[in-house]
Amino acid sequence: MSNTPTLTSMTAADLAEILFCSGLQESDHPSAERVRTAIDDRIGARGGDRATCLALVAQEAGDHPEIYRARMRWALSTVSAAYPGLHTAA
After folding, report:
1. Alpha-carbon separation of residue 37 from 1, 28, 41, 53, 71 (angstroms)
2. Phi–psi pair at 3, nearest 5 degrees
3. Is the pLDDT of residue 62 over 70?
4. What Å distances lie between residue 81 and 20, 31, 53, 56, 76, CA to CA?
5. What confidence tens digit (pLDDT) does each residue in 14-53 have?
């Protein structure tokens, strides 16, 4: 049995962190399907280990706070649109 987290065990904030680390950009204007695919691919590529994503998010927040805030806002709103009804907190 895999230790990969399921989408039902993740919050919108969890998924936004994963999207933040994906190659998608706001300027791509990705569809909800493309967002879900990017998140699924990123989860699969890491075997469910979010530590790499969390480290990148933390580094961006420290190194480029002005960019981090805008990108995280985009990631959160994009995840909310791609996963309607997803819980925003654990």
Report:
1. 22, 14, 6, 16, 19
2. -95, 10
3. yes
4. 15, 9, 21, 23, 9
5. 999 999 988 899 999 999 999 999 999 888 876 667 788 8
